């Protein structure tokens, strides 16, 4: 396994396009394809599904991506160390989050870390709950921003508890309500997040209601909160979102749903390095200001 094989794999995985990866690497497409093929043969698994129309990571390819990225960055750090690079003492800081919505809150903290800890090299990974849990427990993430009960490893710092909201157009007949019950939305077209995004919690009456509702009503399961919000804006139904994903948007009305079990949301981290302590403290301040 060579660093060039890993680099070719990473570039293709991030672009899902062999031509664009080759152009970015200043290599030919056959050369990139050759490196990927040799890598697949060496590790004994197929990393991509590919045909004339689409390139997609296999399940094994998705798992291998984070290892490949980590290995490649460590190889580059070793090279830099012996070449006298200013980045020879760099430390990789991998942050996992459940939604790109957190990017807005992460940005000012990373700016401060760049000023105070210039040797830190951040990597932001947005995945669903179960992927983050797997990556964190396999020590492929230093810190995770996620819902409660992601892991019992390391330290957990609670930020807040959230409830669920109904998100709809202002002209919807329920838009003037201050809160809603299950009965009020039972006959409506509902737009929900996939189960992988929000883990099922035993005893959560809201999740039990949604499971029953889906059996005999129009029930759209979106890929992410962005799609849910878009569909709600276009009048396809009421989007149901947890508090931390509710948009601040004049085009929509957001109403809390009664009798929903609040779910905790916070930070998970293993070690107490000073840059991680700094991130936790600053992120908590900024997050509280946003909410």
Structure commentary:
This protein has 10 helices and 12 strands. It has 291 residues and is α/β, with parallel strands linked by helices. It has a 5-stranded mixed sheet with strand order 4-3-5-12-6, sandwiched between helices. Strands 9-8-10-7-11 form a 5-stranded mixed sheet, sandwiched between helices. A two-stranded antiparallel sheet has the order 1-2. A hairpin with a 4-residue loop joins strand 1 and strand 2. The chain starts with a helix and ends with a helix. About 2% of the residues have low confidence.
Number of strands: 12
Largest sheet: 5 strands, mixed
Task: Determine the mean pLDDT.
Answer: 84
What global shape is seen? globular
Low-confidence stretches: 84-88
Radius of gyration: 22 Å
N→C terminal distance: 47 Å
Order of helices and strands: HHHEEHEHEHEEEHEHEHEEEH
Label this structure with key terms:
alpha/beta; 5-stranded mixed beta sheet; 21% strand; globular; 291 residues; 10 helices; single chain
Condensed summary:
The chain is of the alpha/beta class. The protein is built from ten helices and twelve strands.
Could you give the topology of this structure?
Layout: H1 3-15, H2 18-25, H3 29-43, E1 48-50, E2 55-57, H4 59-82, E3 91-97, H5 103-116, E4 120-126, H6 129-137, E5 143-147, E6 155-162, E7 164-168, H7 182-185, E8 190-192, H8 205-216, E9 219-221, H9 225-233, E10 238-242, E11 253-256, E12 263-269, H10 274-290
Parallel strand pairs: 3-4, 3-5, 8-9, 8-10
Antiparallel strand pairs: 1-2, 5-12, 6-12, 7-10, 7-11
């Amino acid at each position: 396994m060579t660093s060039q094989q890993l680099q070719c794999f990473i570039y293709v995985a991030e672009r899902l396009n062999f031509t664009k990866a080759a152009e970015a690497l200043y290599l030919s497409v056959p050369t990139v394809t050759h490196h990927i093929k040799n890598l697949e043969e060496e590790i004994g698994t197929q990393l991509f599904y590919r045909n004339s129309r689409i390139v997609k990571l296999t399940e094994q390819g998705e798992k291998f991506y984070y290892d490949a990225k980590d290995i490649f960055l460590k190889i580059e750090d070793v090279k830099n160390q012996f070449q006298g690079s200013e980045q020879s003492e760099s430390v990789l800081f991998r942050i996992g989050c459940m939604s790109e919505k957190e990017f807005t809150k992460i940005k000012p903290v990373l700016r401060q870390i760049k000023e105070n800890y210039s040797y830190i090299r951040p990597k932001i990974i947005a995945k669903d709950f179960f992927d983050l849990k797997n990556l964190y427990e396999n020590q492929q993430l230093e810190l995770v921003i996620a819902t409660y009960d992601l892991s019992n490893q390391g330290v957990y710092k609670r930020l807040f508890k959230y409830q669920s909201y109904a998100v709809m157009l202002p002209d919807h007949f329920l838009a003037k309500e201050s809160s809603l019950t299950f009965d009020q939305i039972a006959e409506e077209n509902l737009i929900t997040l996939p189960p992988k995004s929000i883990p099922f919690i035993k005893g959560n009456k809201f999740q039990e209601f949604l499971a029953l509702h889906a059996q005999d009503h129009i029930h759209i399961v979106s890929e992410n909160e962005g799609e849910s919000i878009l569909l709600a804006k276009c009048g396809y139904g009421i989007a149901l979102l947890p508090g931390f994903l509710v948009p601040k948007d004049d085009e929509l009305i957001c109403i809390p749903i009664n009798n929903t079990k609040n779910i905790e949301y916070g930070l998970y981290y293993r070690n107490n390095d000073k840059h991680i302590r700094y991130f936790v403290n600053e992120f908590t301040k900024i997050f509280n200001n946003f909410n």
